[in-house]
Amino acid sequence: MNSDVLMMLFILQIKNIVQQKEQSTMTSPVPREQPFGNKRFADFDLAGKTFIVTGGARGLGLAIAEALVEAGGKVYCFDIQEKPDDEWEEAQRRVVPEWGGQLVYCQQDVRDAKLLEQRISQIADENGQLNGVVAAAAFIQTTPALDYSVDDISSMLATNYTSVFVTAQASAKAMMKHKTRGASICMVASMSGLVANKGMRSPVYNSSKAAVIQLARSLAMEWSPLREDGSGGIRVNCLSPGHIETPMVLELFEKDPGMKKKWIAENMMGRLATTGEFKGAALFLMSSASSFMTGNNLVIDGGHTAW
Fold first, then answer.
1. Which pLDDT value is given to residue 252?
2. pLDDT tens digits, residue range 105-131?
3. Does 205 qualify as catalytic in the annotation?
4. Active site includes 74?
5. Do the beta carbons of residue 277 and residue 300 sit within 8 Å?
6. Marked catalytic residue, from 49, 74, 205, 279
7. What are residue 239's DSSP bridge partners?
8. Phi/psi at 185 (5° precision)
9. Of 173, 209, 255, 279, catalytic
10. Which Pfam families match (predicted)?
């Protein structure tokens, strides 16, 4: 057999190998944490994963923490008070041990940037990972724009924007350090970051939430790409609720009894939301079910911003 024939046979073998690889690539499924059909709702399973929820002592933050625990996650709730109130204690009693989740309370002022970063780093180191963080700590002050003081502006921005940035920053550092696969950060914004709520005189709150929505886009651009060392790949999104009956909102109603009626009339469903109606959305954002979602703002407002 001469050299020309041998060369032709070699070329044919190479072509055959290349074709086989191309066919294999075209038919191979996208890599997943769980194979299809392996477990019911596997994409929503948080067993063995670690999460932090700021503002987790009550209201929306606590409801989100409960959702993650119900899915099997270990959840650290950060809040400013020394001990959680009865609402949190009741939630902890509802935890079903067989589901594998845990609810842990940590006193933490999110405005203390240095201690906040230390606490987040410590939790990640103790668990060897940090899979997700929900920055839900915030407060609202209803004051006419002409009456806002500089101190009031600084105070609100310190909680509603700066602490959210620091929470996300410290979490991303920990996630990259431990190369946590599929990590997710959710920053709770508001529909108030998209529209000027009729009759609701809270210009600093509204603008702080608009800033958080834009922050999510910017951080997603920086942190979502997977890096050569295996870090990165962090999804960053916002959850923007409409009007919810939370302890904070009920305090506003006490000051202005007519506000509740106005708010109800402003959405298509003719009612306020409950905190439990955001559990599914939070679980989606923290789980691998949202693995291709980043830099987005999930709005759940009863149709308020649709008209």
1. 84
2. 999 999 999 999 999 999 999 999 999
3. yes
4. no
5. yes
6. 205
7. 188, 298
8. -120, 130
9. 209
10. adh_short_C2
